[in-house]
Amino acid sequence: MSDEQGGTGGPTMRAIRQEEYGGPEVLHEVVVPRPLPGVGQLLVRVRAAGVNPTDWKHRAGPGFLGRPPFVLGWDVSGVVERVGRGVTLFRPGDEVFGMLPYPHGVGAHAEFAVGPARAFVRKPAAIDHVQAGALPLAALTAWQALVDTAHVGPGDRVLIHAAAGGVGHLAVQLARARGAYVIGTASAQKHELVRGLGADELIDYRSADFAEAVHGVDVVLDTIGGDYQLRSLRTLRPGGTLVSLIPRAAEGLAAQAAAREVDTRLMLVEADHAGMQAIADLVETESLRAIVAQTFPLARAADAHRAGETGRTTGKLVLTVE
Asked: pTM above 0.90?
């Protein structure tokens, strides 16, 4: 932690900031003023922070944040340092985890982060900060897609694309916990792992066309977009639901979905206290865990981006903050 004084006389912190769009090399460690919590907010001393595809996409080019400079990161696990006026749920010293409001609440890749108190819940004692830091954005995405949007329940047949990926491997576990029959697409070498997370059936997307192999499913979770949206329609029963995490419809999606009597939803994750508590409860019952592929110290955030952009990561990447 940095306790040196900034130009305003207040305490400072280390953060990973970029001044321009570009490759991982645009990420630099800087010293900036430590934020203060506003009304209804927490200041959290970050112990671990997940790195997600949305981070490297925003780093590389125009996204939702406007032009740099900015500090990326939405996943937070850490310790409450200070509470803002009106906060009653937490006290300094509480261990918490959560997702900063997406997209404009960004700023987790730093020693301290500020966010609404109700973006956080208490970290389950059974997991460490690395595991907790891996969960919020990806697990909330899976929860909001499968539970809030598609209403997955017992006996539903659910197809999950990229089932070994950051969102996918958590979605497999959530669907299983909801009593669904889970079908996943993943490369053959990852089948054993995904089956161990609860998948009932697996398809090697490199050697088989999932659109020919799967039929009559109730819900598809698309994490890839493009023609995966269109091909996934062929797997759904009439009245089924396609939830895509890529909020851009492939050309012809609406017309083809209507012809097949299929509902399509394009979603982005939102900060969600109730959803985070549901995730914490699943962690407590050992129904949900993150696979952490690799950890990096905060100063090596650029290396985490490089690892993520290979597209070969199984599970999650996490930055640790000492």
From this structure: yes
